[in-house]
Amino acid sequence: MEVAIIGGGIVGSTAAYYLSRAGYAVTLFDEGGGQATKAAAGIICPWFTQRRNKPWYFLVSQGAEFYRQLMADLEADGFETDHLFQVTGALLLRNRAKKLERDLQMAQEKVVESPSIGEVLTVAPEDLQAYFPLLESEFGATYVAGGGRADGAAIIQSLHQAMSRFGGRIVKEKARLVRGDNQTVWVGSRRFEVKGFDKILLSNGAWLPEILEPLGYSVAIQPQKGQLFSVYNRAWEGNQWPVVMPDAAIDIIPTASGQLIIGASHEDDQGYDLTLDEGVLAELKEEAATFLPWIKASAIATTRVGTRAFTPDYGVLVGQVPELTNVWAISGLGSSGLTSGPFLGYEWSQLVMSGKWQINPNDFPINAYITPNNL
Fold first, then answer.
1. At which of 276, 291, 310 does a domain end?
2. First to last CA, the chain
3. Are residues 306 and 195 in the same domain?
4. Do 93 and 11 belong to one domain?
């Protein structure tokens, strides 16, 4: 069986890795520009969300559990994973005592199905610096031992290396789809001759409308720009501080390399623009200063810009493309893509291999987002 995967972000790269590992002939088309995963340095701690969307929560909670399997599989294949994903704990800053009490209750309810949550504690404001010496806050926090941090770009690099080692092929060009016979689709690119594949996964995020439009589809996916920055101090190298999730629009992510990553923005009106916006970075820094007052005087060390994909109702798009027998699509993961993406990519690989996956199509009605224009 030959498989084509279009989009080498976290979803497509995970699927390509597991299918190549199982001996399938996989071609991954990855132009790479603007990819959300490569710009992501994310927090893996989805269990205490206030979103009430149960299908979405299923994906992110399963995604957090799956990270452990993904790292174990890469290690078994000879790859170092310490820099890819680290369980350092998470501090969830709360501005009300009731929220801290609610977190403890949620932990008791969810730990059975999500054992990776680990120990959950309430931390008083005066004790926060014992966990994170740079942090200043008048609020208490919930400490979640199972929270972690993931480096999107490093994970992608390792997955690409792994799939190539197992015989997978990476075509670093923009793919295009061509209608074949009997409701099938063929794939080609500028230098890759158009050919048929048994199974095709469209995991190209915010560019899904672009690749399906020539086939006569309307796709309810929009781009969202995300920017982040980091500051650096050599004295911070080798730290094992927890990630921090304030009651605010930013996250604070320390890395063992001595960087402190702040972000990311959520810009719905910038289209596919990847230009760095100094004004947005200044706003992020100002917000971070609420918890890290010294950061106002700190020089920015690095910046990243990426494009997320989201649907109008912030639901996830996953399933078989209507009227096509060999094409599936996964998109609309938004800012939770780094958490749920590996699980979704793995599950699609299982669908290809066994005809079964843990995705209930009734929970993810793809027809709500992808519509043939002839209807």
1. 310
2. 32
3. no
4. no
